[in-house]
Amino acid sequence: MSADTRECNDIVHQDISIPPAIQVILDSPPVQRLVNLKQLGCAFNAYPCATHTRKEHSLGVMELAGMVGTLIQEKQPALNVTDKDILCLRIAGLCHDLGHGPNSHVFEAFLRAVYKNEKEHPEQYEDRNTRFKEEHGVDMPPLPANYEHERTSLMMIDSALASVGLEIDWTKPDEPLKQVGHGTDADKFGVVGKNNEYDAFTSRDWIFIKDIIENKALENPSPLLERLRQLLNNRREHAVYKQVGKVEIGLMGGDQFWKMSEDEMKEELLHEHEKYFGEPARYKGKDSEMMTLKPEDFIVEKRELHYGSKDANPVQLMRFFMKSDQENFNNPVDKLPTAEEVHDFPMNTPRDFVRRTVRVFCRSREKCEMLSHVFQDWKLHKEDRAEAGPHCDFKVFPLEVVHEDQTQQDSQPITQDEQYSYRKRNNSEDSDRSIALGTAKKRLIL
Hints:
Elements: E1 6-10, E2 14-18, H1 20-26, H2 29-32, H3 54-75, H4 83-95, H5 105-120, H6 126-136, H7 149-163, H8 175-180, H9 186-194, H10 203-206, H11 213-219, H12 226-236, E3 242-248, H13 255-258, H14 262-277, E4 282-284, E5 290-292, E6 298-306, E7 354-362, H15 368-388, E8 393-398, E9 420-425, E10 433-435
Antiparallel strand pairs: 1-2, 3-7, 4-5, 6-7, 8-9, 9-10
Helix pairs in contact: 1-4, 3-4, 14-15
């Protein structure tokens, strides 16, 4: 070990050696910026001890990348992997997350929302564009439709290397390194080299975009940031929006329901009580004043969780072979044996590898109860339609008055106040049946 080599203590990898070539890049502003980015995004709001930083994560990835390169060098000498290749692999691991913004992937969702709003309401951004042109002398480039932190990472790697006088040829990466870092192969480098969509953020400006941007917003007295300051203070005081309902997509019609946009689901919820009461949804608040449910009162969120390969089992995408199987040793990846599930072997394999849910949050605490009732009615109706099938037609029929002697066998007799009920009508008249949902004075009519 060289006398100039640094030692870094890591909770997982114990001692990590940092040679001088990596020290120069590690100490550069783009990499040091990772100290102020949380690896787990906003998770620390729910788990205060979840404060792993992106610098810690990147140091671990650097160490693992070097270990992979060393193993390839030892086990497959025919590939001619050099010490320089391993050094480049470690640098790539150190720099792979440079393009992340504040609060990790939450920042990506923020940019998507701004992009959508800018397209729909360009007049709201005229002042911003004017200020940008006055400050920089050029028109502000448009925001990207789909932000990818990998692309920005490549731009930042260029900046980090340039800051220490280094330059790298992205067009001809060595094949072994390309296989290890398959997510950033020659094809992606070529695309980035020809089409950089992120001129709106120069590498110099990007260095200052970190989690502490929240503190700057709280300290800024500008009235334009009033709404942002309110949101940040609410989060610090744990005055968060209340979740009033959640539903699994599998119970609501599967893919057909998932294709609906969040705005379409919100429209359905708004119309739910309009049909329920025959007028806009109203509800008595604490002061006995009638409240109306408005679009800005709640949020509909579609959430998809998976194991990294959408609805596929990621293990089945891996390739395995025995060390004694020399015939397959030098085969390309797609020619290696695939993983096979052994059904008679005790395993805890998930039934589904993707979980899709819809969650509804209420911004107003006074309207949480009202929105909860709306959501439950909407959910029951959706589930019932999914169970009935696409050929079932929902119609409304008035109910006759039911006398007490006719309801002795019922646990909850129907009263005169109950005016309507769902009825599913199939092709046969004999298959009609009523479905009682709740105890409301009027039934939902769709």
